[in-house]
Amino acid sequence: MALAGALLALALGLSPLAELERSFGLRFLYGLRGPVAAPQDIVIVAMDAASAQALGVPERPERWPRGLHARLISGLAASGARVIGFDVLFAQAREPAEDAALADALRRAGRVVLAETIRRDFVRGADGSVVASADQRVPPLPLFAEAAGASAPFVLPKTPDGVFEFWTRVPTVGDRPSLPLVLATRMGVAGSPQDPSPDEPRRLLNLYGPLGTVTTISYGRALELLADPVAATATFGGKAVLVGYSEANQSRQTDAYRTPFSTADGVDVSGVELAATALGNLLEGSWLRRPGEGAALALLAAQAALLALPWGLARPRAALAATAGVCVVYAGLALWAFSAARLWLPVVLPLAFSPALVGALGIARQHRAALRRRGELERALELGVPRAAIERLAAVLGDGGQGKTVIAVCLCSDIVSYTTIAESLSPQAARDLLNRYLARFIPIVESHGGYAADMVGDSVLSLWIAETGPEPAVAAACRAGLELDRAMNASPGADGALPTRLGLHCGPIFFGEVGAPGRHELRAVGDIVNTASRIQGANKYLNTGVLVSRAVADRLGPGEARSLGRFALAGKGQAMELLQLSREALPAPAAARFGAGLQAFVAGEFGAAAAQFAAAREAGDAGPAVFYLAQCRALAARPRDPAWQGVAVLPGK
Questions:
Q1: Which residues contact 411 (CB under 8 A, 6 or more apart)?
Q2: By the 8 A CB rule, do 318 and 310 touch?
Q3: Which of 465, 469, 474, 470 is nearest to 522 (CA)?
Q4: Mind giving me the DSSP string for 370-437?
Q5: For 586-596, what is the mean pLDDT?
Q6: ∠ CA 78-83-89, rounded to 5°
Q7: 143: exposed, middle or buried (Cβ count in 10 Å: 0-12, 13-18, 19+)
């Protein structure tokens, strides 16, 4: 299941659906992260309509008198601005005096970087189709280019989903450094990337927020501040200042781009703010990174395998909860990577498509498994297993896989001397005898809520699943054991009654499908099952009918079972205390004598113990007292064992 989920995720990662990460995925991550503080050493001076009105100049920024820019540049230089960038194209000559004033201010400042643009020319074929294209730089007017400190292009790679990247070097014009890179280099901030590798000409923008997140001062207000040297130095000193078009009123904005922070009412981010964002990313080294294609596919596969794991182990409700948990954890990891490590991990595929497809695959797989189990249970119905038992088993198995570990009470039974009985019968007669026995045995088990889970020869393993706690299951199993003891051992010769030994133990078992390909059966497996069989076998030596473990007796009422001591059972490394369930109470004198004898036996006083056990036998204890009397006589004849721990050894151990 996990492998199928991983392969499914790889297919998704290689499909066109991966393109959704650029639109929905990035918007989702920015939405979770929200705006963050922009660098404080970058200021935008916005050419906007409010400034045009206040300064009495044309509303269209490209028509503003260039003497006004000369005044701004001189003031910014005097205030100590580290570098000044103009996201304004000065490619055409205008009024000579104004142009001269601007050139003079550029020359005096010595720290201004002007914008270039790039013009794309197309080559068309005879049918009018585009067969080639060529990009050409459009620099500022030579008068300004020579006076300025530098000029550089600022173009943004556009996509149908908006703008996500910026150029550090523009490859179509000879890898010319872009405006943000030139500004970052001239800032000279320690640790800033002075010259990003030409092998990575494009960087992913790490947006700070919507329009206005980068400190923005209107053009008119900037001139007012520059009139006050103290205020000017506090506002612009030591900072990078970018001048460009930026309007809060988008109907007036001629240079705006759609980003994940664009608002529903159409407010996009201005070009100059994106230039400031790119500059901030370069100064801080904070642009976004994406994992390589191989790493991204491996991450998708690993997350999908983790999503698929619960569908192979748990029921649908638990698997859905686990799926939601994995998605929440992954979303938290992706947000942390995006916010703290500036790593853009895929989110659309792992949080939307992978859970949906893996869930559908898991539900389909569990549905097929449920149908297969239903078929097996229905075949069991045809063989005589009551529908109520089938429904209980289906509830235990659930829809989560091939089985599960449950707490259960195991009752193991065995017909006394069945081999000897069968020797004198034909195979068909032996079958008929066993069928009559089971026809009497199984209804008793099922009437007490149990299930005859396994029948091998004359041995039956019956189960009580502890669905609401072990106490009710133990009580029901013990009632069934006593009724079976009465039906089989108290009325010999009755139809279907054969002498039977019974042993009960409880604890965790695996209950589900066991087998090889093409052959599966519902079985109970585990040490509890094996131990119940060993307990049943101890009846043979103790001459008892029903024995239980301490784990069973502890969940019964006081006095319902009498302790017979600790025994070393065949195949068990540790001694176990066994207790007897009886249809009738042992006479009080016999019980008292047996208790005293057992106490002396544990203390290693075998002579005193033998006397007590002999008295118990005479008082009516014809089973365990007889066994212990023989044990005491044998032990008394041997040298005393210094490591004696009061454990009786059954034959065969």
A1: 445, 450, 461, 462, 463, 464, 477, 480, 481, 502, 503, 504, 532
A2: yes
A3: 465
A4: HHHHHHHHHHHHHTT--HHHHHHHHHHHTTSSSEEEEEEEEEEEEETTHHHHHHTS-HHHHHHHHHHH
A5: 93
A6: 105
A7: middle
Q: What is the DSSP string of 327-342?
A: HHHHHHHHHHHHHTS-
Tell me the Cα Rg of the chain. 44
Tokens of 604: 């290693």
Q: What pLDDT does 264 receive?
A: 65
Tell me the residue ranges of DSSP E strands in 562-646.
562-568, 576-581
In one-letter notation, the amino acid at residue 166 is F
CB 201 within 8 A of CB 171: yes
Distances (CA, A) of 450 to 388, 482, 513, 555: 10, 14, 19, 17
Locus of tokens 């192979």: 312
Per-residue model confidence as pLDDT tens digits over 607-645: 999 999 999 999 999 899 999 999 999 998 888 888 899
Work out the mean pLDDT of the chain and round it to a whole number: 84
| Structure-token pair, residue 57 | 């100049």
Structure confidence at residue 90 as a pLDDT band (50, 70, 90)? very high
Measured between alpha carbons, how far is 482 from 461 in angstroms, rounded to an integer? 16
Secondary structure E strands in 63-111: 83-86
Mapping DSSP to helix (H, G, I), strand (E, B) and coil, where does residue 501 land? strand
Taking alpha carbons only, the member of 268, 278, 262 closest to residue 248 is 268
How far apart (Å, rounded) are the C-alpha atoms in residues 384 and 378?
10
Instruction: Record the tokens describing residue 339, joined without a space.
Output: 């916010």
| DSSP letters for 125-157 | -TTS-EEEEEEEEEPPPHHHHHHSSEEEE----
Q: What is the chain's length?
A: 653
Q: How many angstroms separate the CA atoms of 607 and 473, rounded?
A: 42
Gap between the Cα atoms of 347 and 21, Å rounded = 7
Q: Which tens digit of pLDDT belongs to each residue from 366-422?
A: 667 666 666 655 555 444 445 555 555 555 555 444 567 888 999 999 999 888 888
The answer to whether 217 and 235 are in contact (CB under 8 A) is: yes
Q: What is the number of helices (H) and of strands (E) in the chain?
A: 24, 24
pLDDT higher than threshold 90 for residue 114: yes
How deeply is 407 buried, as exposed, middle or buried, from its count of CB atoms within 10 A (0-12, 13-18, 19+)? middle
Neighbours of 71 (CB within 10 A): 16
The token duo for 561 is 């079972």
Model pLDDT, residue 14: 46
Contacts for 533 with CB less than 8 Å, ≥ 6 apart: 412, 459, 461, 503
Euclidean distance between CA atoms 72 and 227, whole angstroms: 10
Tokens coding 70 = 């000369």
Q: List 647's β-bridge partners, or say none.
A: 566
